[in-house]
């Protein structure tokens, strides 16, 4: 039989007094009466066994154990009054195989409404005992102030049963309490008309019976106000300092604060800085505006607002609940009210906390929780009222059978709305849908009424919705709240979606409240998977684990993050979708342009847009600011200087991260002066200066050596007056120049410039601060090579409580090995290559590059310099199996990475993939003249075997893309000194024709691969390869043709694209196409190892290239390839001798990284054998035994050789 919590045995239990979480003081002990009870009357401690846990192991028996048939298994302690509990301890039952291995700790002020204690990391269970006599202590992460404690076993001895002895540690707790009934308030009146403060501290604890209500409010005539209010179970703080628009700030914190349990609040304000704390969660904000003081007139009210509608109020409901220990700037408000001090007005406030009798039940399972209750058979009507609270959008709330067969009422929660359905039969039904967003974690009141010919449904005291019935409906013998019991599935009761999962209270059926105590005792109805006297709802979005402004939503069991628009992805919006640098964009094959980069990856900083200038030798990151034009300054002095602040497109935190990751940064400062000095001629006092990114004053104007007051001319030793370190200090009336480049990157970028010497007659200055330019990525190629299994690099332990991301590139020849391992006190994370089998924690052999953990790249190279068995860098990029350089580009190794040499490729860009295109106008042509009589196969001997004569001596490889609407047209022609030629033309009908005249005495070979009209304004790709007599054509197909001869093109004279003037020995149709030339776009032209179109652009002025007419360098090939209809953009290429355009293309480094490995990360795994792993790691970390130098050198050579041979680089 279940007992109430009145003790029938006045047993003594030692309550250990002493160490609290706030103060440390000497431990004192005393005996205190308290009551121990459980769910069964047979389970009280006998009087002779009721001493402290410390002494109980000397007794012949004792401890608590429930009966095996008992459904309610808990041990409850009544401490007689509220105390501050700081720790608990447990033992098993003495002299038995019974103990508890894990348990939950619940606490309550009343013994009816319970709350589960959770540690700081939201863990709700405590590890228990492993035997009956050992004592396990747990110091609580935060103290709890309570009267009742309940120990709820979760797991117990596998060879026995539950057994428990407990001890509680804590401190006495006294408080001043005030009870507010929803119509009461406390007014604290000031001694003067108003008070103005720059510092305020408000602290209190509260528990509320309603989700809304004002706790604190004060206001002033000039518009100041402070309001602390409860709104939908959350606390909101509103403060305004004087200015209605700019001085206002609102902060929201907490959730589910109307749970009838105590919550602590602390508000600290100093000037504009505000710290707002609710239950150990703190937000830091600053108010706007110019004022620092809060001016409040007459009074400060607590618990409500005497006159509704005052400025600064956001809710008009008064607080309904209790407050304790209410302090305003050190004044104990409740104590003053209790002593009836004149400065306090107490309106309907009492000083004992009234406790509501609301008892909740938690439906734990979404598939099998239910509460079945009987109905009076004589009742002709049915009314049901209850309150529910959940996060789930779906669930069955109620099912009631009616007297007519197969007729029932079904209440569902569907997409956060209530749907009441009346089923007359399996095929006939009607329903009502009401409410919105009812799965918001708030309490909602539902009322169902059925009688006669109608059924009505209402929610939250809103007008009911009514459904008319065709026949009179009468209730059956029972109804089910929650899901359907399995025993009723054969009667048609099935969960349409899932069972209800959430909290429920105040269940009233036909005007009779349901006593949950009777349900627990088995005296009323039946239930499954319910927890009584507690609402187990949790706000899984508080704290918000969604990073980078991801939006959190939740169900009962988990939470979800919406990362849309954040620039991040992953379960918690942790991983950035952007590349970390311009160097990384180059490796993806990107050309110059604006890009978003995220310098700290998954770190707290967001992405920013920069310009990536990808040149032949460097990749520059350019960050602009608000003033890049020349600025003229006159009339400034030190007393009234000219000041310009620079606002960059990235924040200072982003710039600091970008600069630190770059190899080098610089910023040009153009400075022209006329009778305007930078430094005072007599004492060297700066007359102008600039501020670095930290706001520090800097007085140097060039170079990379800070702290020296000089300009670039001094560094170059070419100042116009050697008596000064700057040209401007000569103080001449002519314009002088002190332009310099700032390159000490720890000071960059420039955030402000001040000019102070332009107020004299004729004095003037002109300046311009350029954009910030940085190149290189110090960490992208940061690598280390491991050539001993015992070698390792040690870094500090990773602090990653909630989320962690790890990425790295690696190359190896070994089938297994450990990449990295994070060891904590109990937990570890290991990433290893297993090769399909366990690695037995073998060390890694190979290269690791760009190791990044939570947005921070580890400096492998620096650690490798001081670690035996490890060397800096990673060899063999070009020899890996990755295709790093495309389209005949040549990969060239560098100390950090590689570059692609695109000299013999028709393409440009960092990895030779960028189209090189030119638009031809009427009469335009490009002719490439070979430097000497040129044989295609001049490097091969003519005395080679017959096999080679057939397969190798006659070979051409031609590839290009074209777009045109003109016919006929000359695309490409090659002629030799022996009156041979080959030509590729478009005939009158637009078909592609290939002409070969290899023997001037015979007719030419003519091939028409396709009869389609290719002059249709679309881009077409042509690829031709000849081997002797065989010619292969791939123009959207793959065709093979045979020539009449296998002769080669001997001593090639020239290659022409576009118009060809009269030429002897050329057939009439080819001559006609040549005279018409070509109008349109030619792109990426390749003839064997030559790129004539690219040569025409890069080698202007060369005698080998002749350009006639107007050509326009364009992106027509790229645009056409993307099916774009936009006009081509570009610049004109006139005769090569006259052209002065900028060079495009170049030799730019690139890498294509292939993701083939998966990250094997084992997270938060209980590390029970730490001492064994420590010994293993100690053997790995052994440094005393060093290999002989020659063996070490040989091992390193073997590794480098293996890396260069065929190892592919992988990314995880």
From TrEMBL:
Alphabetical list of InterPro entries matching this protein: ConA-like_dom_sf, EGF, FA58C, Fibrinogen-like_C, Fibrinogen_a/b/g_C_dom, Galactose-bd-like_sf, Laminin_G, Neurexin-related_CASP
Domain annotation EGF-like: ranges: 537-574, 875-913
Coiled coil: none
Domain Fibrinogen C-terminal: 573-625
Transmembrane parts of this sequence: 1142-1167
Name of the protein in its database record: Contactin associated protein-like 5b
F5/8 type C domain location: 64-171
Record-linked CDD domains: EGF_CA, FA58C, LamG
Ligase listed as a keyword: no
Bilayer topology annotation: Single-pass type I membrane protein
Family of this protein: Belongs to the neurexin family.
Annotated compartments: Membrane
Pfam families linked: EGF, F5_F8_type_C, Laminin_G_2
Source organism superkingdom: Eukaryota
Domain Laminin G: 177-353, 360-535, 935-1116
Function: May play a role in the correct development and proper functioning of the peripheral and central nervous system and be involved in cell adhesion and intercellular communication.
GO cellular component: membrane
Keywords (A to Z) from UniProt: Disulfide bond, EGF-like domain, Membrane, Repeat, Signal, Transmembrane, Transmembrane helix
């Amino acid at each position: 039989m279940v007992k109430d919590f009145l003790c029938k045995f006045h047993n003594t239990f030692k309550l250990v007094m002493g160490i609290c979480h706030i103060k440390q003081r000497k431990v004192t002990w005393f005996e205190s009466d308290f009551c121990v009870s459980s769910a069964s009357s047979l389970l009280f401690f006998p009087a002779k066994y009721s001493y402290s846990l410390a002494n109980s192991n000397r007794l012949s028996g004792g401890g608590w154990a429930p009966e095996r048939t008992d459904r309610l298994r808990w041990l409850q302690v009544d401490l007689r009054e509220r105390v501050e509990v700081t720790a608990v301890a447990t033992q098993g039952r003495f002299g038995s195989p019974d103990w508890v291995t894990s348990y939950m700790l619940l606490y309550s002020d009343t013994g009816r409404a319970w709350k589960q204690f959770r540690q700081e990391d939201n863990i709700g269970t405590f590890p228990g005992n492993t035997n009956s006599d050992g004592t396990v202590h747990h110091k609580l992460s935060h103290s709890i102030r309570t009267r009742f404690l309940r120990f709820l076993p979760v797991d117990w001895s596998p060879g026995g049963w539950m057994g428990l002895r407990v001890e509680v540690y804590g401190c006495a707790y006294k408080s001043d309490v005030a009870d507010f009934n929803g119509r009461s308030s406390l007014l604290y009146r000031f001694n003067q008309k108003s008070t103005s403060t720059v510092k305020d501290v408000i602290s209190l604890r509260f528990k509320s019976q309603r989700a809304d209500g004002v706790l604190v409010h004060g206001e002033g005539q000039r518009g100041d106000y402070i309001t602390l209010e409860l709104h939908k179970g959350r606390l909101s703080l509103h403060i305004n300092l004087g200015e209605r628009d700019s001085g206002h700030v609102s902060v929201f914190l907490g959730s589910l604060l109307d749970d009838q349990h105590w919550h602590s609040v602390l508000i600290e304000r100093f000037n504009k800085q505000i710290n707002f704390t609710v239950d150990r969660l703190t937000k830091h904000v600053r108010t706007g505006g110019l004022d620092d003081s809060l001016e409040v007139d007459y009074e400060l009210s607590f618990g409500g607002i005497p006159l509704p509608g005052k400025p600064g109020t956001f809710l008009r409901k008064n607080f309904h609940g209790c407050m304790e220990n209410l302090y305003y700037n050190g004044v104990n408000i409740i104590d003053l009210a209790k002593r009836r001090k004149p400065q306090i007005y107490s309106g309907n406030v009492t000083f004992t906390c009234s406790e509501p009798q609301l008892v909740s039940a938690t439906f734990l399972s979404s598939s099998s929780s239910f509460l079945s209750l009987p109905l009076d058979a004589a009742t002709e009507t049915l009314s049901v009222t209850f309150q529910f609270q959940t996060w789930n959008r779906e669930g069955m709330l109620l099912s009631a059978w009616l007297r007519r067969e197969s007729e029932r009422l079904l209440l569902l929660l569907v997409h956060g709305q209530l749907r009441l359905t009346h089923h007359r039969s399996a095929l006939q039904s009607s329903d009502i849908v009401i409410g919105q967003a009812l799965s918001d974690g708030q309490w909602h009141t539902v009322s169902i009424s059925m009688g006669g010919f109608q059924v009505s449904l209402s929610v939250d005291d809103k007008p009911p919705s009514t459904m008319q019935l065709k026949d009179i409906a009468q209730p059956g013998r029972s109804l089910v709240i929650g899901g359907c019991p399995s025993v009723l599935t054969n009667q048609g009761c099935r969960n349409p979606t899932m069972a209800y999962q959430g909290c429920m209270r105040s269940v009233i059926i036909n005007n009779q409240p349901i006593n949950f105590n009777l349900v627990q005792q088995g005296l009323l109805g039946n239930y499954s998977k319910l927890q009584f006297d507690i609402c187990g709802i949790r706000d899984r979005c508080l704290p918000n684990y969604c990073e980078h402004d991801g939006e959190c939503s939740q169900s009962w069991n988990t939470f979800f993050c919406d990362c849309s628009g954040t620039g991040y992805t992953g379960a918690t919006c942790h991983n950035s979708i952007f590349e970390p640098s311009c160097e990384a964009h180059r490796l993806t094959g990107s050309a110059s342009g604006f890009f978003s980069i995220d310098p700290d990856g998954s770190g707290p900083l967001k992405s920013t847009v920069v310009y990536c200038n990808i040149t032949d030798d460097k990749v520059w990151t350019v960050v602009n600011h608000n003033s890049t034009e020349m600025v003229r300054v006159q009339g400034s002095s030190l007393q009234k200087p000219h000041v310009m602040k620079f606002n960059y497109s990235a924040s200072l935190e982003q710039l600091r991260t970008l600069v630190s990751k770059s190899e080098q940064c610089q910023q040009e400062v153009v400075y022209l002066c006329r009778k305007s000095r930078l430094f005072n001629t007599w004492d060297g006092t700066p007359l102008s200066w600039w501020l670095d990114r930290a706001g520090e004053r800097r007085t140097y104007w060039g170079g990379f050596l800070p702290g020296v007051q000089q300009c670039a001319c001094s560094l170059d030793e070419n100042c116009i007056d050697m008596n000064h370190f700057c040209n401007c200090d000569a103080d001449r009336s002519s314009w002088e120049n002190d332009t310099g480049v700032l390159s000490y990157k720890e000071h960059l970028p420039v955030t402000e410039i001040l000019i102070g010497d332009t107020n004299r007659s004729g004095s003037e200055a002109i300046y311009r601060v350029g954009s910030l330019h940085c190149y290189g990525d110090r960490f992208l190629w940061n690598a280390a090579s491991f050539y001993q299994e015992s070698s390792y690099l040690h870094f500090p332990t990773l602090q990653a409580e909630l989320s962690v991301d790890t990425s790295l590139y690696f190359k190896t020849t070994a089938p297994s090995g450990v990449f990295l391992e994070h060891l904590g006190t109990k937990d570890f994370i290991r990433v290893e290559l297993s090769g399909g089998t366990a690695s037995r924690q073998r060390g890694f052999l190979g290269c690791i590059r760009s190791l990044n953990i939570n947005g921070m790249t580890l400096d492998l190279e620096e650690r490798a310099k001081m670690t035996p068995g490890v060397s800096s860098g990673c060899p063999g990029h070009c020899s890996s199996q990755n295709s790093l350089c495309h389209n005949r580009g040549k990969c060239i190794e560098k100390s950090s990475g590689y570059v692609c040499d695109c000299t013999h490729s028709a393409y440009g860009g960092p990895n030779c993939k960028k189209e090189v295109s030119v638009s031809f106008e009427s009469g335009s042509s490009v002719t490439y003249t070979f430097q000497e009589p040129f044989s295609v196969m001049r490097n091969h001997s003519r005395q080679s075997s017959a096999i080679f004569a057939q397969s190798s001596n006659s070979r051409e490889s031609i590839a290009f893309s074209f777009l045109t609407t003109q016919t006929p047209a000359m695309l490409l022609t090659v002629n030799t000194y022996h009156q041979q030629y080959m030509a590729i033309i478009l005939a009158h009908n637009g078909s592609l024709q290939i002409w070969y005249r290899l023997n001037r005495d015979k007719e030419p070979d003519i091939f028409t691969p396709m009869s389609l009209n290719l002059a249709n304004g679309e881009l077409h790709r042509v690829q031709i390869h000849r081997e002797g007599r065989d010619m292969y054509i791939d123009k959207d197909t793959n065709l093979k043709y045979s020539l009449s001869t296998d002769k080669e093109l001997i001593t090639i004279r020239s290659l022409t694209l576009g118009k060809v003037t009269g030429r002897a020995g050329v057939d009439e149709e080819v001559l006609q196409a040549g005279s018409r030339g070509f109008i349109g776009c030619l792109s990426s032209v390749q003839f064997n190892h030559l790129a004539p179109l690219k040569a025409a652009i890069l080698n202007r002025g060369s005698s080998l290239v002749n350009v006639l007419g107007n050509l326009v360098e364009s992106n027509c090939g790229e645009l056409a390839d993307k099916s774009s209809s936009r006009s081509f953009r570009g610049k004109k290429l006139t005769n090569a001798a006259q052209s002065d355009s900028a060079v495009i293309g170049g030799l730019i480094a690139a890498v294509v990284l292939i993701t083939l490995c998966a990250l094997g990360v084992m997270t938060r795994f209980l590390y029970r054998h730490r001492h064994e792993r420590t010994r293993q790691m100690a053997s790995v970390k052994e440094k005393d035994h060093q290999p002989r130098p020659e063996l070490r050198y040989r091992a390193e050579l073997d590794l480098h050789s293996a890396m260069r041979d065929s190892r592919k680089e992988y990314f995880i």
